[in-house]
Amino acid sequence: MDYLAQIAARSATLRDAVASAPSVEARVPGCPGWTLHDLTTHLGGVQRFWAESVRLRGERPTWHEPSPADDLLTWFDASTADLLSALREASPDQPCFTWWGASGAPQTAGAVARHQVQEAAVHAWDAEEAIGKPSPLPVEVASDAIAEFVEVSLGSMGAWPHPPAVLTLTATEGRSWSTNLTPSGASLLTAPPSSSTATVTGTASDLLLGLYGRSPLAALSTTGDQTFDRLRAWVNTD
């Protein structure tokens, strides 16, 4: 997947949703307490942060509280352009500060690009939901993001605080991902397990959004125990 192209595309989706909204003060259901202005400012600030992180080649950047100009969308476009420029200038294996060192996932510019696809994709969906027109995430984007979510986000969470479990997510488009949850943490299994504690089935888009607490559980079919509910309550998706 071309991560930079998807960052651009998903950011444009958010931008278009905000541009079509009656007001940037519209509430965002997926981010309680946020408006579309808050959502746009957040993603723009995140993109500027990671652009700086890539350019610093391993040094930790300073978070600067976003301060959009009078024209919010012009500022947001510049934020996306800054991130894409930094990523184009870097090799994918260039060392880069990340927050996910504990996961064992790569700490490189390429890994930042991959994670920023996920960030932009989920928030673009948030923006579309805020204007009443949510559309499914592209299958390729959602599928890669599910694996990245397990490897990076869950992999950074530390010990699983419940009895050991295996959670399998099965996409109706044909792929599946199994996560081993143990006192050692969460890890993505490379081979199908002999059995799963719980299996959740849905589109790749709904599965990813479900992991982020966005998609209603009614959109997903679950068999087995409450592992998926426990995982949703455990993981930090702020």
Provide structural commentary.
- The protein has 238 residues and is of the alpha+beta class.
- The protein folds into two domains: 3-130, dinb family like domain (Four Helix Bundle (Hemerythrin (Met), subunit A)), CATH 1.20.120; 141-234, Nonspecific Lipid-transfer Protein, Chain A.
- 46% of the residues lie in helices and 11% in strands.
- The protein contains seven helices and five strands.
- It has helices spanning 3-20, 36-56, 72-89, 109-130, 139-153, 204-211, 227-234, and strands at 165-171, 176-182, 185-188, 198-202, 221-224.
- It has a five-stranded mixed sheet.
- α2 packs parallel to α3 (72-89) and α5 (139-153) runs parallel beside α6 (204-211).
- The radius of gyration is 18 Å and the shape is globular.
- The protein starts with a helix and ends with a helix.
- The mean pLDDT is 96.
Strand residue content? 5-15%
Q: Distance N terminus to C terminus?
A: 26 Å
Based on CA inertia axes, which overall geometry fits? globular
Spatial order of the strands forming the largest sheet = 3-2-1-4-5
| Contiguous uncertain segments of 5+ residues | none
Mean pLDDT: 96
